[in-house]
Specification:
This protein has a domain of 212 residues. With 305 residues, the protein is an all-alpha fold. Helix 3 runs parallel beside helix 5, helix 5 runs parallel beside helix 14 and helix 10 packs antiparallel against helix 11. The chain is globular and about 50 Å long. The protein is built from 14 helices and no strands. The protein starts with a helix and ends in a 12-residue tail after the last helix. Pfam families: CitG. InterPro entries: CitG, TriPribosyl-deP-CoA_syn_CitG. It catalyses: 3'-dephospho-CoA + ATP = 2'-(5''-triphospho-alpha-D-ribosyl)-3'-dephospho-CoA + adenine. This is Probable 2-(5''-triphosphoribosyl)-3'-dephosphocoenzyme-A synthase. It is an enzyme of class 2 (transferase).
Length: 305
C-alpha cells in the first residue's frame, strides 16, 4: 500500500493509535494514589500543577500525535532525517503545551517519547504494511528497536561539550554530574525499561482490575529505573532510598486494599520529601499505550482496538 499525506487524516488506524496515546496519558494521570505524583486526589510533590493542568496539557498535545505517525508513515529518507523532523514537530508540541499551561512542564518527557515511538510506528507501518491491530509482542519489539535507530546519535549530539554551556537543562545537568542519560538514553537503547521490565509484567497481568495492574506496575518501575525527576529533586541518595522502599512494597505483594493504604501513606512521605517519580510515570503511560495496541486493555468505550 502506498501511503499519502492526503489520505492520512481519514485513516482509521492512524486515529486509533493516536487515540490510544491520548488515552494512555489520561489514564496515567487519573490513576490514584500515586506516590509523589499528580492525580485527581493529590498534587503530590508538585506545587505548580494539578489534575486540571495535566488535562489541559494532554488536550493540547493530542493533535500532534497523528502528525508524529504521519511523519513516519510518509517519510522517504533515512532514520536520522526522520528523527530531525519528529524533533522539530515535537518542539512545536512542547511550545504549545507550555503556552497552554502557562509555562508549566507537565509532559516534556512524555511528549518526547511519544514523538519517537509514534514516528517509529508510522515508519514500521510503511515498511511492513501493517494495517490492523492488535500488535503482537514481536511487532512491539521491532518498533522499540526502531526508536534506537532513530535516536542513535542523540546522546553524543545533545551532550557534546556540556561543561562549556552556561545554561543547562535538568537532563543535561544529570548527565554531566552523574552520567545519567535519562529519557534520551532510554530511547537510544530501545527503551529497555519498557522491553525488559514493564511490558513483560503487563503481558502477564490479569486485567479484571486494570487500576491495580498499573499501580503495581508503577511501584515496580520506581524500584528499578533511573528516575531523572527524583535524581534532580533529591540526588543519588534519595533515589536509591526510593528504590529500596518501593522494592519492599513490590515484593510484599500486598492485597489490593492494603496496597492502596500503603501507597496513600507513601504519597504523603514522598510529598514531604519533595520527590516525584515523573520518569516512572512517563514510562507507565507508554506501557498503557502498548497495552492498548497489543489488545491487553480496552479503550474507554469498551472496545478493544
Amino acid at each position: 500500500m502506498k501511503w499519502s499525506v492526503e489520505k492520512l487524516t481519514d485513516h482509521k488506524l492512524i486515529g486509533t493509535i493516536a487515540q490510544a496515546a491520548q488515552h494512555a496519558l489520561f489514564y496515567e494521570v487519573a490513576l490514584s494514589p500515586k506516590p509523589g505524583l499528580v492525580d485527581p486526589i493529590s498534587n503530590g510533590a508538585h506545587t505548580d500543577m494539578d489534575f486540571q493542568t495535566f488535562q489541559i496539557s494532554i488536550q493540547t498535545l493530542t493533535p500532534f500525535f497523528q502528525k508524529y505517525i504521519a511523519l513516519g508513515l510518509t517519510h522517504k529518507g533515512n532514520t536520522k532525517s526522520l528523527f530531525e523532523q519528529l524533533r522539530q514537530t515535537g518542539y512545536q508540541a512542547e511550545q504549545a503545551m507550555l503556552d497552554a499551561t502557562n509555562d508549566i512542564n507537565t509532559h516534556k518527557g512524555a511528549n518526547f517519547s511519544f514523538a519517537v515511538i509514534l514516528g517509529a510506528i508510522g515508519w514500521h507501518m510503511q515498511q511492513c504494511f501493517i494495517q490492523r491491530l492488535p500488535l503482537n509482542a514481536k511487532q512491539t519489539e521491532q518498533i522499540l528497536k526502531l526508536t534506537g535507530e532513530l535516536t542513535h546519535d542523540l546522546i553524543k549530539e545533545d551532550f557534546h561539550d556540556l561543561a562549556r554551556k552556561t545554561q543547562r537543562t535538568h537532563g543535561e545537568e544529570l548527565f554531566l554530574v552523574h552520567g545519567i542519560s535519562g529519557i534520551r538514553g532510554e530511547a537510544a537503547q530501545c527503551y529497555p525499561s519498557l522491553a525488559s521490565i514493564l511490558l513483560p509484567y503487563l503481558r502477564s497481568a490479569n486485567y479484571h482490575a486494570p487500576d491495580e495492574v498499573f499501580l503495581r506496575a508503577l511501584v515496580l518501575l520506581m524500584s528499578e529505573i533511573e528516575d531523572g525527576n527524583i535524581l534532580h529533586r533529591g540526588g543519588i541518595q534519595e533515589w536509591q532510598k526510593v528504590q529500596q522502599e518501593t522494592k519492599k512494597i513490590h515484593q510484599a505483594k500486598l492485597p489490593w486494599k492494603q496496597l492502596l493504604d500503603e501507597l496513600t501513606i507513601y504519597d504523603q512521605r514522598l510529598t514531604k520529601r519533595n520527590l516525584s517519580p515523573g520518569g516512572a510515570a512517563d514510562l507507565l503511560s507508554l506501557g498503557i499505550f502498548f497495552a492498548q495496541l497489543e489488545g491487553l486493555l480496552s479503550l474507554p468505550e469498551g472496545k478493544k482496538i
